[in-house]
Write a structure and sequence with these properties.
- By secondary structure, the protein is of the alpha+beta class.
- 34% of the residues lie in helices and 32% in strands.
- It is built from three helices and four strands; from the N terminus they run βαββααβ.
- Strands 2-3-1-4 form a four-stranded antiparallel β-sheet, with helices on one face.
- Helix 1 packs antiparallel against helix 3.
- The longest helix is centred in the N-terminal third of the chain and has 17 residues.
Length: 97
């Protein structure tokens, strides 16, 4: 079984509220063994819809990535997000490694 990758594409609409999410989401990812590979705004869009922020995290397995997403800790962070705070697309994918 390969590693699990969590890819988030985000357009932030309300920085203050988004910070509340980030302050809880980061520790939740780390709690479940996730490591951030990319987490920032230096994005170069070359095709498709543009997102200003891309976050890539890696977990030991796709199951661990799912466990993190569904955890109480991460779901608590999600309480700070809605359509007025951020537009997001989230994918979990199993790696080839």
């Amino acid at each position: 079984m390969g590693k699990g990758y969590w890819v988030a594409c985000v357009n932030v609409k309300n920085q203050e509220e988004f910070k509340k999410y980030v302050n809880l989401a980061g520790p939740a990812v780390k709690l479940y063994g996730g490591t951030f590979l990319a987490r920032g705004n230096n994005v170069f869009n070359i095709e498709g819809k543009k997102f200003e922020r891309i976050v890539v995290s890696v977990f030991d397995s796709i199951d661990k990535a799912k466990e993190c997403y569904n955890s109480d800790e991460y779901q608590n962070a999600l309480n700070f997000l809605n359509d007025e705070v951020a537009e997001r697309i989230i994918h979990l994918v199993e790696g080839l490694d």
